Amino acid sequence: MGHALTRGRSVELAEGRVTLRPIRARDAAAWQEVHTRNREWLRRWEATVPPGSAAGRRPTFRQMVRFLRAEAGAGRMLPFVVLYDGQLVGQVTVAGITWGSMCSAHVGYWVDERVAGLGVMPTAVALVADHCFFRLGVHRLEVCIRPENRASRRVVDKLGFREEGLRPRYLHIDGDWRDHLAYALNAEEVPEGLLMRWRAYRENRGFTW
What we know:
The chain is of the alpha+beta class. It has helices spanning about 1-10, 30-35, 40-45, 60-75, 120-135, 150-160, 195-205; strands at about 15, 20, 80-85, 85-100, 105-110, 140-145, 160-175, 175-185.
């Protein structure tokens, strides 16, 4: 599986006006502009470093990219930036990739408030899910979301992820340990592909780009 994942590190995925490509150091200016402008929008949902943690301070962008690319090289992660009409508007990361008898991973994401509600993130998640399920051989994908994060929960609801229950004090966010709802999807639940499911959802509701 390592060989397949290595091929996936440099992949570019696209659907309509949405494109995903691996994050890189030269994304710094665009990434920081979007992230800084959306600080209040994202603050309640982004992971924080617990006081006294051995991890120390939050990493710089360059340190983050170095870590993400090292993890990708080790076969444990696929970090993408999300482009909408060619402009960086967010990030989606497949992390915790585990092979062997489990073949699973979890997905995290954030998006610019300016394009929230336009179908950008459901498209991005569908693209990475199909890539993981049908090109890399991942069997299960999981997304964990704070119950209060209605916008993020709508993403997985639209795509048909199963809600599997509450994980109390699961992740340190915005200064404290926060409960999360776990959502999951197995490859055999979407034999037609998650992107096809998302296209059908949009067509049934008359949505276009």
